[in-house]
Amino acid sequence: MGVNILKGIPIQMPTKYISVTGGVLSGLGKGIAVASIGHLLSSKLKIIPIKCDGYLNVDPGTMNPFEHGEVFVLDDGGEVDMDFGHYERFLGVTCKSRWNLTMGKVFNMVRKKERKGDYLGKTVQYIPHVTDLIKNHIFEIVQEENPDLVIIEIGGTVGDIENELFLEAMRQMKEDVGRDNIIYIHLTYVPVPYGVNEQKSKPTQQSVNLLKQRGIFPDIIIGRCPDFLTKEIKDKISNFCDVNSDAVITGLDVDDIYEMPIIFEQEGLPEIIHKKLNIYSPPDLRKWKKLVDNIRNPDRQITVAMCGKYTRLADSYASIIESFNHCSAHLSCKIDLKWVETTDLKDTSFLDGVDGLVVPGGFGSRGTEGKIEAIRLARERDIPFLGLCLGLQLAVIEFARNLCNLTGANSTEMDPDTPHPVIDILPEQKKVAEKGGTMRLGAYPATITEGTLVHALYCSTEVSERHRHRYEVNPDYHLILQEKGMVFSGISPDRRLVEFIELPQLRFFAATQAHPELKSRMENPAPLFYGFVKACLGREPVNGSEKGLPLSQEEEK
Ligand code: GLN
């Protein structure tokens, strides 16, 4: 609930709602649209994003990244849809697991309530029981967080059987919250067919019809299109779909998702929302535009090799890609990611023209030997190296094998019978039988050693990063690794777990058991990524007066 000052008297504003649905095609960028709308309205409003997904998994944690893209992890340990990455990056909020409502969670709740006897005597039905439960979940979040505005994204496309109940709940919401307090935004596709060379409105009309059949009448239509929508097409959509012409907004194809709020502002979207919801929260995009301009017009360029298993699908590494975009924005540098499939590395040519190497997180043994080999080459040739989660574990294995003389050293994840299990399962994981939601998940603190590269980058002895893993550096090997020159620059407060490692004699060789990419923001790039990119640019190692701070922080000093 927000406070508005009217004639000197503060009045309580009811919480406002925006429901966002999509039509015609999946993959039109609904998550980015929601995040961009949120960004534009966030100057004066507390905004909560909620995402409803129709699948029956409780969360995406058990899904293959090929299937569903990256699993995003929140501070509270929730494994959620990757759109939460966009929400956090654009809105500057720390999201909660409860804000991702899947049909799997809904059915779990219904089953529990039914067994408890909450519906005693009743036939449990989709309407009203399931839809009530969806709405109550949303209203509970509103009660907990007291936001000014809630943006609810319904996953999938109108007409999909999976999201019918969420759409029905959205339809009913206008009765619960009042028609003045909710607007409906529908994202569609406006194709320009080859040879016809004209923007076409039919798919939008049909998709809006599907929505209307479900009792939802959109207030705003965003048409994804390669070009700005013409006045003619806006008028046509307005006519056929019963929205004002100025409420038909271009969802332009952009090279860089951070341009989206700028496009929406240009199209007048904030004013229309302000008018329809009777709110006021003018956007200030000055700094954002400067950063976007740096991404678009970089002064220099580097190439970074990304050694991954899911390299065919950029969505699997969305947060890493965004972390590099944030570095681009602050260092005015184009970062070319060269995807290296390590399952079939034949020679060392993958390192030709490469300024730095990243080994990201991953599971299972496929491709790990290739990654270990790549890390060895990076270490021996002093190519900047950044290891993330599995990347840290493989760097430790490489170091153990080649510098500590521990032949056959491995992780018990890859080789349960290794003579030197330098990476082993966390003790608390040994008895865990269930797969879903059982890893070491969410934000954990680390104590950082002063004088290390990691300390210079974070400028702090206490850092908190998000985790998603089952294995760790085996404490039995801590001593030998350190004796041979590996520095544990960050450890858990109980000193049991290794959180950050580095090899100080090299230009940049650092890795973490965490996933710092999950907390990188446009305004505040993840420190490890920032330091790594600087090292790739061939700048001096990040220490001394410069401290490797991102531009924004340097400016503030
Ligand atoms: N497979 C490793 C583990 O479970 C690494 C996980 C990861 O990279 N996220 O510990």
Helix content: 25-40%
| Uncertain stretches of 5 or more adjacent residues | 1-7, 540-557
Roughly what fraction of the amino acids lie in strands?
A: 15-25%
Supply the CATH class of the largest domain. Alpha Beta
Q: What is the CATH T-level topology of the largest domain?
A: Rossmann fold
CATH architecture of the largest domain: 3-Layer(aba) Sandwich
Radius of gyration: 25 Å
Number of strands: 23
SSE blueprint and pairings:
Blueprint: E1 2-6, E2 9-13, E3 16-22, H1 30-41, E4 47-53, H2 65-68, E5 72-73, E6 79-80, H3 83-91, E7 100-102, H4 103-116, H5 126-145, E8 149-154, H6 164-177, E9 182-189, H7 202-213, E10 220-225, H8 231-241, E11 248-252, H9 260-266, H10 269-277, H11 286-296, E12 300-308, H12 318-331, E13 333-341, E14 356-359, H13 368-381, E15 385-388, H14 390-403, E16 410-411, E17 421-425, E18 440-448, H15 453-458, E19 462-469, E20 471-473, H16 478-483, E21 487-491, E22 498-502, E23 509-512, H17 527-536, H18 551-556
Parallel strand pairs: 3-8, 3-9, 4-7, 4-8, 9-10, 10-11, 12-13, 12-14, 14-15, 15-23, 16-17
Antiparallel strand pairs: 1-2, 5-6, 17-20, 18-19, 18-21, 21-22, 22-23
Helix pairs in contact: 1-3, 1-9, 4-5, 5-6, 11-12, 12-17, 13-14
The structure holds glutamine.
Question: What are the defining features of this structure?
Answer:
557 residues, alpha/beta, Rossmann fold, 9-stranded mixed sheet, 7-stranded parallel sheet, 23 strands, 22% strand, disordered N terminus, binds glutamine
What does this structure look like?
The protein is α/β, with parallel strands linked by helices and 557 residues long. The chain has two domains: 2-284, Rossmann fold (3-Layer(aba) Sandwich), CATH 3.40.50; 298-556, 3-Layer(aba) Sandwich (Rossmann fold). Helix content is 35%, strand content 22%. It contains 18 helices and 23 strands. The strands form five sheets. Strands 13-12-14-15-23-22-21-18-19 form a nine-stranded mixed beta sheet, sandwiched between helices. A seven-stranded parallel beta sheet has the order 7-4-8-3-9-10-11, sandwiched between helices. It is globular and about 75 Å long. The chain binds glutamine. Glutamine (GLN) binds next to strand 19.
